[in-house]
Amino acid sequence: MQLLDRTGKAVRATDAGAKYLEYVRRAFREIDAAGRAARDVNDLSSGVLRLGFTPSFSAYLTAPLARRFREKYPRITLELNALSQDEIEADLIDDKLDCALAFYAARASGITSYPLHTERLSLVGRCDHPVMNNKFIDVRCIEKEELILLNNTFVTRQTINSHFDKYGIKPNIVIETSSMTTIIELIKSSSLVTILPDAVAIERQGLLSRKLLPTMQERQVVLLQREGAYRSAAMRAFIGILDPLVQELETFPLS
To answer: What is the pTM of this model?
Structure first.
């Protein structure tokens, strides 16, 4: 069986060779995973957890999750990686991540998903902003407000755009950004408002979230892992921190 094609200027793998390399890479991933499993320390006195997450979670979930985990397991190194959904799935398959927080059940084969909570998009702004005096806000009123939103590369923004299009809303978007930090800082220090998960207001004093009517499409947040991957002691401890935190998010009332 010929694995390499040397007829051209460059040596290339044949179809059979490419298939062989795929199995070799998979074998090396399994060997590496087996090595980590052998080194796993069940008393959590050491270890590493490689977590991926889509950028939207940095606004409300990543920081409290990391803080609680570090407080309880200070000797475990936590690697945080903000990635796109496609990058997350590829890195899970390649064993570059142990697990990841994402919006959807995995689209790629070889990945399992564990449902966490339902994310709701709401209007978020300063407590003293006049529009926040209303418990519920008609989405048509958005046209009167100056908005700062994530740019169109984010799934969150695509969901917002679809909602506006559905109801014929022409929003006054004055700033678009890829930075969650920029959005949070500007709505805290100006009259701008934004649309983000309502949980963003949980840990930020001076901010409120208000439900939009009609409501925007809810999204299922899931924990992704490579199918059949070993769950280390650090991974099991992480899930023990994650579960009660997302339960708090589910019960968080709109202020």
So the answer is: 0.73
